[in-house]
Amino acid sequence: MAYVDVDDSSSAADSDDSFIGDGHTAKKHDPYERLVFHVFIGYVVLQAADRVFMKRVTNSMHDPTYNLMLWNIIWPVTTQFFNLAYMLPYIWLMKRAGHKGYTRRFLCPGNPTATSSGPIPVWQLGLFSLGDQICTCMQGPSVAFISQTMMTVMSNTLIIFMAALSAAFLGTRYRPVHYISGLLVVVSVLVDLSNKLSDNDCSPAGTQENKCLYAYKGAQGMYHQLSVGEMLLWYGLFLLSILPLAASSVYKQYVLQGRDVEVVYATWWSGVFQVLWGILCIPLFWIKLPGQEQLPPGQTFQGLLDTCSCMLGNVPHPGDEACASNPSPIFWYVIYLAFNVSWVVLRICLIKYLSAVWTTVATVLCMDLTNVFGMIPFVAGGGAQIMSLNDWLATVLASIALWIYSIEPEIRGKSKAICGN
């Protein structure tokens, strides 16, 4: 792994353990190297489990309207309660450890101790989650109609957008090992798809044997085939959602490293603004989707109530029988939230202390590990699928790509710190 030098003269929240610098390897920080390695392991495992539980919840709430309500209204709000559950004890423990900046006002706007360069406008941290929420808004309805493997394949293309944006806006330059790593990621995607591309059997028998590229497995354990129009819609939405996610990650690196922002503080205000971004996505609920009933603006609140009813295991309308799962969708949603808030804060740590592109390469391994967890019926439910030989080979290639990328550090561009006010 590549780390960066530290300026011992100042640090966020009156702490002396920040190691943001100019991009050179800091050999004197071996304890931090071990710490970030453990953070990386946690990030990979937690995000992989998060993806599986997310799909399980989405499958149970099959209606696109329910998923739009869940991921744009309910999720941003409930996430903040889970964030507070670990943030408040964290602040208390840091205060007990002697860090004077961690007071009861630590999460308040304009806290000068949350960065090493004075107060930072909270709107800059709010922009952290804008791209994330746009991504969530676009992915939410589509996840239920795409197989876990295909989601992994499309998500892995994030590294292409991320590397291009980092080079353009952060001045990042890459060494040969990084290009080799990116090439291996593309190869892993092609390996994962090769079997279905060469033998795409979408007959009724082939569909149920998971040989159809455009089929997905529903909450009841049965495969369903998409029409061409539906495939273009759901796959197109999912692919387009990757661009705002890439832009968001690059912006996070720009602010976190430029201002040395405390991770928990950044996570909190990012989440606060995500509630606002989700509300602003409400007009998108009213768009007529092919093959789906349109939600009239006047029925928006009723749609939210129906979503809550579905989460509790009820059947609000005929055709919503997938909601009546046992345990109910809210059970798996709470488990999902526990994993979600954990890996999100770890991702911000990795972006701050490494880079957005490095974290994205790690996400490739996360997505492939998701396929492993997706084989376990207890975790994935009726949507559990056995990994093929191609899936395993793709996972191995992604792991090798991550190792190769870590051999040498990126060449960081010289960027100016963001103005505080």
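Second entry:
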Amino acid sequence: MNIKNDVITIWKSRTKYSHADMSEDFFDVGGDSLGSIYLLVDINNFFGIELEPDDFFTSPTLGNLINLIEQMLK
């Protein structure tokens, strides 16, 4: 499993953004609050974790999201 690549794939599917920058903010690349919930549902289902919206909303960047998931999977 390559966490980074898997998260990038899910991120792109929810933002419709063709590239992925670790510092990009979900809401700055076309994401909205409903889309962020769908993003988290996709991630939680894919990785079998329980990432909460508050965890993501604190810093809604791709890099932060990857770090949160890696920490939860340790």
